[in-house]
Amino acid sequence: MDDIILKKLQSDIGYHFNEVGLLKLALTHRSMGSQHNERLEFLGDSILSYSVSNKLYKNFSQLDEGDMSRVRASLVNGKNLAKLGKNFEIGNNLIMGPGELKSGGYKRESILADAVEAIIGAIYLDSDILTVNDVILNWLKHDFEKIDQNNVMKDPKTQLQELLQSKKMKLPNYEVVEIIGKAHNQKFKVRCLVKDLSLDVFATGTSRRKAEQASALKILEILQYDIKN
Amino acid sequence: MDDIILKKLQSDIGYHFNEVGLLKLALTHRSMGSQHNERLEFLGDSILSYSVSNKLYKNFSQLDEGDMSRVRASLVNGKNLAKLGKNFEIGNNLIMGPGELKSGGYKRESILADAVEAIIGAIYLDSDILTVNDVILNWLKHDFEKIDQNNVMKDPKTQLQELLQSKKMKLPNYEVVEIIGKAHNQKFKVRCLVKDLSLDVFATGTSRRKAEQASALKILEILQYDIKN
To answer: Which end of chain A is more exposed for a tag (fewer CB within 10 A), N or C?
Structure first.
């Protein structure tokens, strides 16, 4: 990778590395062998989550905990991160093995999203938590601007219900199939069945309500439904 | 709540608040009405994850990304957090509605774990990210000491296999039931069937391998199997 490309990338992401080797590592896919970006991705993922959560807590006081969870999921999911990766033209800069290259891995959304998280980890290691936080919030500036606090997001069960109704399908069926554990430490296992789509998932939660919401969210994920915010 | 109890609690958790109101909010269950600890819990959860991930990245260089995920899950899960809550005797200090009190909510593991996360959020708001990081790492000191880098943890499929073998049960059956999405953005839906336990779960992932591991993890969670570290 030549220096001009790396300079452009750093200018696009809005951070210039002291140690460019960290950026190169963040761009290195596991198909390259022993040194790759997966540990950096793990680190970056948790920093991204902290950064977004902190912003939501401090600047979106009208959102309750459930709302914040849903907004955060919509900002840090693979699709949104891959979009960032495409804006930064990361695909052209990925370092990967010939097999992965040939099969078009540099276009795969999950690989782009992973590299974006790894870059976050790399910026953090090259600077500090406050600096990387500023970089992340700048990337997501427009996403945060679009969050409408008054039009509070709907929970997964409501979203699933509305989605099915819009397609003239029957409502999902929720059923508690198992209650696990003792009185003060119970887990509820719920089955959610959407007959018209032949979908059938299970989810657990510490209350019946939470398990039902989790099962509805799974269905939405399977349908690759854009969670509204 | 009298001041002596709050002083003891602050001494137990190893942090003294400038604004004790934040600690009181962290101890307030949603059954009390409009002002409760769920937003703080959301914030604290992400800080805890960052703190543990950062420590694992920097001090446990032999653990790969999968190992770090599993160790982190074992440290930040409800059970481990509830244990901390019990050590701090949080149960006696929870502020909750009469119905929840009567039904023994102050003993419920999930409520204790949530309050611990909320306390993390409260410490952060009362200080800064570096201070709360030190407090968290001090709480988890013994957990980190117990992590054996050489005896690298086993992945969920391996753990499930060994668990079933130890009970003389048949091995689980994995089957790809659906491949969703286009070529460069596929999701694999896998079914994991454990006949001898009448357990049958579905999980999705961006690769067949990831979906299988996720389905094995679900089975382990349903069995409330202590994930090894």
So the answer is: N
The CA distance from B98 to B101, in Å, is: 5
Mutate: best of B48, B53, B226, partner A, most A CBs <10 A = B53
Q: What's the length of chain B?
A: 229
The domains of chain B are located at: 3-146, 156-222
Does B198 touch chain A if contact means CB atoms closer than 8 Å? no
**Would you state the CATH architecture of domain A156-222?**
2-Layer Sandwich (3.30)
In a mutagenesis test of the B interface, which of A185, A201, A210 is the best target, namely the one with the most B β-carbons within 10 Å?
Answer: A185
Query: Contact at 8 Å (CB) between A113 and A86?
Result: no
Active site annotation includes B45: yes
* B209 contacts chain A (CB < 8 A): no
Structural fold of domain A3-146:
Ribonuclease iii, N-terminal Endonuclease Domain; Chain A (1.10.1520)
Distance CA A70, CA A158 (A): 13
Residues B49 and B117 sit within 8 Å (Cβ to Cβ): no
Angle (CA) A35-A40-A43 rounded to 5° is 150
pLDDT, tens digit (0-9, with 9 covering 90-100), for A51-109? 999 999 999 988 889 889 989 998 999 999 999 999 999 988 999 888 888 888 778 89
pLDDT in tens, B130-147: 999 999 999 999 999 988
